[in-house]
Known about the structure:
single chain; 11 helices
Amino acid sequence: MALGQEAAMRRMIEQTAMVLRDMAEGFDNLGDSVGRHSALPEAGHSPRMSAYTVEFLTDPVEIAAALLDAAAVATNLIISMHPGPVAKRAELDEELERTRHALSRGVAVRSIYAESFLKSPVGAKHLRALAESGVDIRLLGSVPFQLIVSDTLTMFSGAGQEDARSLAVLRPAFVARAAQQALEHWWTTATPLDDLARHVNDSPTPQEQAILRLMSAGVRDEAIAREIGVSIRTFRRNLANLLNRLGAENRFQAGVKASAKGWL
């Protein structure tokens, strides 16, 4: 393993321990366990599923295979959290397929996602597909990193595009127990998908709020379009959608109904 990869792996472990240490007894031993028991792969060799205590994967094919294997070997529970950003559609489809396979075998699946998923059309569709398949989903305003516990296997990667390209696989059972306790803690503070979806659906988007505010101030259509950065044609289409959403027949009614809903 290259020095840069090893340093990144140890940084990820330290980040994990920092978050979980206060939540689960025994996680303090992770660093000692790595030092005593793990044999790091030699340069150019990074096995997918092995007896190593800790693995660090950077190859996208190996990461996809490790995620698939983790879902395939689960027998009781897969619990996870996902920070975003929303992945590419192909990756989301792979996640949905392996999750459905686990559910078909009677494995319970619970997942926490960042609320940003619900605000993305692709992310929202993915969450709904998971929920319809039987996944119990909750959302948090901020998710610190990706963490997956599949029975006694723990998988971790940081938040953000760069960190999402790597995956640490931790095998000690006590790590999985600690990680699950942490996930259970976050689970109790998260909002069920249906509850948050109703709230989001009953709230104006930032663009809708801007349109309502400017219209109520008597600003002309062309000026509103310039203010929100769209063409006049797009503005009028968005306005028609907003009137339809409010159940209003004209702009005056839209202002009255928006005020009644607390949108202004």
